[in-house]
Design brief:
The protein is of the alpha/beta class and 393 residues long. Helices cover 37% and strands 13% of the residues. The C terminus is likely disordered.
């Protein structure tokens, strides 16, 4: 079978138009943006033009937009460098990506008070009747915009509107939202917001942290004046240019791509329902972006199913790529209070506008065949790849 890639939430292919926009800055326009000569000035213009475009597309000001090596750095920076008291009160969603959850747990060990918001069975944090109602003030609130495992959108703007007066800082990981949903930094009411280019078909190794004007945040790094001294180091001009181009293309075709991917998801789930039942979709589809769908296949251990699908040429995941080495059930699905058989049999499938209907039809058939073989190994005698329960070597 021709390999099928359904793991775009992990990383997306670089678009040819993005590669072409980057090409001159690897070769003839190679200057250091911090240099005063013409080569440097040319590179500096490219960086600032990209900054202005990205800021415009995300409804931010250029001086609020700081380039980073990606969302992991941006999230760590936002959480570790805010001027918080040692015993700060922090309220967070338990659905966060490891690059948010692990820094928060590290800070908790150092003394801050960490509280988690309740999560509904459908995969969204609750707004009413939470710890936020009981606290008089909160030093930091942390809630992502779109969950990276279920695709469920979170009520960020609603939380900011309801509790904004008592929240000193509000950080939002918008990695899975940028390029798919309209991300409006100022309208969301957050203090900081992180994005990463390779999630919307840009280059890997570049992202940004949006920092609301007037917010005091210490740099993670020292040793340079770049980006107003907030993030020193020579700016990777080709990556920055590529990020701007990728986001521009994603925003230009966002509605068209949304409709295409939504149809793919419907086709995919319809075929799974018909040929691989019982299945369970984890997360409210009506509140999700169509690019991500999380499905449980009771009776099929998720890690084994993932390995069998990989051998069959289908790429998907059990959750975040940053926690893929863990043998424990997903903390995101655990927070949703799902039954054990759903927790242990869940896989994430994620689509792009580059995904075709032919691919999702073929993928659904491969999944159905593999699920059937795992549930009923005795029905396919003589086929070791389907009947053996031994670990894959």
């Amino acid at each position: 079978m021709t390999p099928i890639y359904l793991d775009y939430a992990s990383t997306a292919t670089l678009l040819p138009e993005v590669a072409e926009a980057m090409r001159p800055y690897w070769t003839e326009r190679f200057g250091n943006p911090a240099s005063a000569h013409s080569f440097g000035r040319q590179a500096r213009r490219a960086v600032e033009d990209a900054r202005e475009l990205i800021a415009h597309l995300l409804d931010a000001f250029p001086d609020e937009t700081v380039f980073t090596s990606g969302a992991t750095e941006a999230n760590n920076w936002a959480l570790a460098s805010l001027p918080l008291p040692k015993d700060a009160i922090v309220v967070a969603s338990p659905l966060e990506h490891p690059s948010v959850d692990e820094p928060l747990r590290f800070l908790h060990k150092r003394g801050l008070q960490l509280h988690h918001l309740p999560v509904t069975h459908d995969g969204s944090v609750a707004v009413a009747d939470t710890i936020l109602d009981k606290l008089s003030s909160v030093d930091l609130l942390v809630v992502m915009l779109v969950n990276n495992e279920t695709g469920v959108t979170q009520p960020v703007a609603e939380l900011a509107q309801r509790f904004g007066e008592k929240v000193r800082h509000f950080h939002c990981d918008a990695v899975q939202a940028a390029g798919k949903l309209p991300v409006r930094f100022h309208d969301l009411g957050v203090t900081t917001l992180s994005v990463s280019a390779h999630k919307f078909h840009g280059p890997r190794g570049i992202g940004a942290l949006l920092i609301r004007r007037g917010t005091r945040i210490e740099p993670l790094l020292r040793g340079g004046h770049q980006q107003l001294g907030r993030r020193p180091g020579t700016e990777p001009v080709p990556l920055i240019v590529g990020m701007a181009k990728a986001l521009e293309l994603a925003e230009k075709h966002r509605e068209e791509h949304w409709n295409h991917v939504r149809n793919l998801r419907s086709c995919f789930l319809d075929r799974l329902q018909r040929s691989a039942s019982p299945i369970h979709v984890n997360g409210d589809l009506d509140r999700s972006i169509p690019h991500i769908v999380n499905v449980s296949f009771p009776g099929c251990p998720g890690d084994l199913l993932l390995a069998r699908l990989d051998l069959a040429g289908l790429a998907c995941s059990t959750g975040s790529a940053c926690s893929s080495g863990s043998l424990l059930p997903s903390p995101v699905l655990r927070a949703m209070n799902l039954a054990e058989d759903r927790l242990k049999s869940a896989l994430r499938f994620s689509f792009s506008h580059l995904t075709t209907e032919t691919e999702v039809v073929s993928a659904a058939q491969v999944i159905a065949d593999t699920v059937s073989a795992l549930r009923n190994p005795q029905t396919t005698p003589g086929n070791p790849s389907r009947t053996s329960r031994k670990p894959i070597e």
